[in-house]
Amino acid sequence: MPEYTLYSYFRSSCSARLRIVLALKGVSCHIIPVNLLKNEQYSEAHTSLNPSASVPLLCHETLGRCIKIGQSVAAMEYLDELHPQHPLLPPTSDPAARAKVRVLVNIISSDVQPVTNLRVLRRVRDLGGSVEEWNRDLMRKGLLAYESIIQTSAERYSIGNEITMADICLIPAIWNAERYGVELYDFPTIARVVDALEKHSAVTNAHWRNQIDTPDELRYS
Question: How many CA atoms lie within 13 A of 221 on its CB side?
């Protein structure tokens, strides 16, 4: 029985971050789907575990207790500290590169994702706004910032030739951006990094089309 349980939704970009990390580090987990469209995140059973009423939620059974982490960046850092294989940050000898990774992480996790998540989109729609236009505008602005920053550091991936936490935040954001019609031709460096990431088995295994709760009509054939 895996010591980790991940409460996840197949389309959730934050859930995808943890699916990628777990696959990258070779750590097994039990996935429990939470259907956001059916509002299962607001159920008493779920909010008793995660008061934020959101996914992902990472639960770690260890030393006779259950550690619950309901924010994806905190959970990524936790997994990185416990499972140092394939570190998600550059070495401590390069604090500038580590800071750059964190800047990129925050562009996605603070500037882009929170204002384009399902909870916000429902409110935009209720107020009569265009969800598609809202998403495209905010996603493009965040990606423009990301593109500008990695132009001097990207090699195979965003920072050099190893996958970092920045890449793990980027690729699910790109999946969402493409869903809303954001084209990558304006972001050539990001496009090159994404092409490399999508060839990695940890990323393909974590793709939203490959999850246990992905509807049959959306699965890869």
Answer: 1
- Are the beta carbons of 182 and 143 closer than 8 angstroms? yes
Largest CA distance in the chain: 51
pLDDT band at 220 (very low <50, low <70, confident <90, very high): confident
Q: Got the DSSP string for 80-113?
A: HHH--SS-SS--TT-HHHHHHHHHHHHIIIIIIT
Residue position matching structure tokens 């495209």: 136
In the chain the first and final C-alpha atoms are separated, in Å, by 30
Q: Which two tokens stand for residue 48?
A: 């008793």
pLDDT one-digit tens code per residue, 182-203: 999 999 999 999 999 999 999 9
**What pLDDT was estimated at residue 1?**
58
